Amino acid sequence: MVNQQKNIGINLWSIKEHLTTIEEADESLRRLAEAGCSAVELCLISEMPDAQTMKRLCDRYGLAVCGLHDMTVLENPVASLQAAKTVGSGFVSFPYPQGRDLSDPDQVSTLVEELNEAGRVLYENGVTLTYHNHQVEFARADGALVLDRLVTETDPRTVQFQLDLYWVQLGGGNPVQWCKNLEGRLPQLHVKDYAIGADGQPCSCAVGKGNLSWAELVDHFDGKQLIIEQELYTSDPFDELAEGIRFLSSFGS
What positions does the domain Xylose isomerase-like TIM barrel occupy (predicted)? Predict the structure, then answer.
């Protein structure tokens, strides 16, 4: 087994097609551990085994649970808190503002209120809420960048951020600058590389094979949980994820 890198994890959305049964999940987590992965971020979706089962399998292979992605955390933070406690995670991430029109400033205000309330519930019970961005937060509502509003209007004690480098780049932002902007509120980074595919469209790729400014980004790795996410593969997904782990490990992560 490759030595596990203590702050490099994998978001399991990356291999969701290989987690549809308990048997598949067992084999997939074994392969991640053998690749040097030390932690995984669970996704609370019906297509995967339940959180308790995933925790049991993670324990079997020495994998920590570094976070949860839960679409329901804003509407039911108590249930998310219970799930986090079940798997031993100190973080729950709100992964996507589905069904919200972020060009509407009133809907952004509502999102801020919901983040603050859910963040308070988790914070008071020893768990941290993080907000996971996509490109949609780089829209403007009444001239204000949505991500700026989320940063300035949420409570810095109770709402942290999980910056996804790929989506920052796709949204027209500067990933390095946003790491600086969020310093002190950025316990986790979603490490998803940015490439241009054969069809000329943006796509993810094995970490280190794309166009992100790694020489500058590495300065912002210290003290952060790095979570690899990849959605497009040209070969075996586990081999490409292992390649990403080796790349990040080369920086002394």
Answer: 29-249
